[in-house]
Amino acid sequence: DAMALKSAVIVWVEQEGFTFDPPINPSQKSDRGFTNNTTGKFLCPVGMNWLDISTRCAIQRGEIVIPSTAWPMMLYNCLIYYPNDPWNGFLHGQILVKTYMHIFVSPSTGRDIENFNSAVTISSIAYAATQARHALSPLPTLAMKDHKRKLPESRVFYGSLMQLLEDLEQKHEVEALISWWNQCDALISNNAISF
């Protein structure tokens, strides 16, 4: 999944109307992450303003360390986070949806789509979010360690999403989320919309 997504995510970001600053080589990872203003915008944690030059520079210089548990803006629809309504658009981000469909639904997955009964799960959404985040990052592998926890940082990120999605206090929001994802999945599986 990670290898195929490395190039695909660049195309999807450009399809969303963004240009890379500085330009990115789709086959390389080193020019992604916070050093690139475009991928940085997608990876910027909710609650931080990437457009604020002092914030952006502090992140890029390493003065603000972004933990693996921080949720990037790319998880949100249109990269918009509503602090008073954090579930609004959460896990609806266009890059996330395209990543999910690329992994689980597209013909390149090798699945027989006509006979594939795909019920979206919280773990499949969290997995796609982890893969999308990694594709935008400069990290060469998913096994890179989180500096505090000594675990792979992708596992820490995935675990933080799963912890929220399995929280019984969030049951109604999660049910609405799964319903939304199943509608997206059905539309794409039936060729009603394309990605």
Describe this structure in words.
- This protein is 45% helix and 0% strand.
- The protein contains seven helices and no strands.
- It has one domain.
- Helix 1 (2-15) runs antiparallel to helix 4 (94-104) and helix 1 (2-15) crosses helix 5.
- The longest helix has 19 residues, at 171-189.
- With 195 residues, it is mostly helical.
- Mean pLDDT is 86; it is low at 109-113.
Strand content: under 5%
Number of strands: 0
**Spans of 5+ residues with little confidence (pLDDT < 50)?**
109-113
Overall spatial form = globular
Mean pLDDT over all positions: 86
Q: What composes the largest sheet?
A: none
Number of helices: 7
| Helix and strand run | HHHHHHH
Q: Kindly state the percentage of residues in helix.
A: 40-55%
Distance between the termini: 17 Å
C-alpha Rg, in Å?
16 Å
Structural class: mainly alpha
**Structural domain count:** 1
Question: Which key features would you list for this structure?
Answer:
195 residues; mainly alpha; 7 helices; DUF6698
What is the fold's blueprint, element by element?
Layout: H1 2-15, H2 37-43, H3 53-60, H4 94-104, H5 122-136, H6 153-165, H7 171-189
Helix pairs in contact: 1-4, 1-5, 4-5, 5-6
Quick description:
The protein has helices spanning 2-15, 37-43, 53-60, 94-104, 122-136, 153-165, 171-189. It is mainly alpha-helical and 195 residues long.
